[in-house]
Amino acid sequence: MELRRITRMEDPQLPEVIVLYQQAFPASERREVNQLKRLIAGQSSMFFHVIEEGGKLAGLFVYWKLADFYYLEHLAVCPEMRNQKIGQKVLDYIREHLSGEHLLEVEPAVDEITTRRINYYRRNGYEIVEKQYRQPAYDNPEKSYPLWLMSNRDYPDRRELAEHIQVIKEEVYYKPCL
């Protein structure tokens, strides 16, 4: 598995990756394409990666380096590449190369699919740290959606978690809308 960061709107693989992005995430959980392209080209703290396996597009992975932690924004595997442990390889990469704290959002456990996703992250060292979290809408920070936050570490001091949530909201959701 290879991760290749895209930093130019003219990248020849970007159109194909954007199709995957749009198919993998509902509108409420993704950015408008022009905003995404502007961030890819101009936001150095956002890392938009193509996942390749055997020279083929296998998925996408987006994370942010924020202050003293990482926010894992999107991970999607192409449907035809599923069940080949691509997601596991990305999580292994994260563990080996992004040392420190990681935060990610998941949908609340309301059905078999969402429960399986949470358990998958648990098996990879993440635990739910906040169930009252509200993700601001990408296109309108006045709207929000209930999600849970998971992390690879515990937060005995809830103020630290609140500070990190505020950084995520400001850097990932509010500032790009300006």
UniProtKB/TrEMBL annotation:
GO molecular function, one term: acyltransferase activity, transferring groups other than amino-acyl groups
Superkingdom per UniProt: Bacteria
UniProt organism field: Odoribacter laneus YIT 12061
Domain (N-acetyltransferase): residue spans on this chain: 1-152
Pfam families: Acetyltransf_1 (PF00583)
Matches recorded under InterPro entries: Acyl_CoA_acyltransferase (IPR016181), GNAT_dom (IPR000182)
Protein name: N-acetyltransferase domain-containing protein
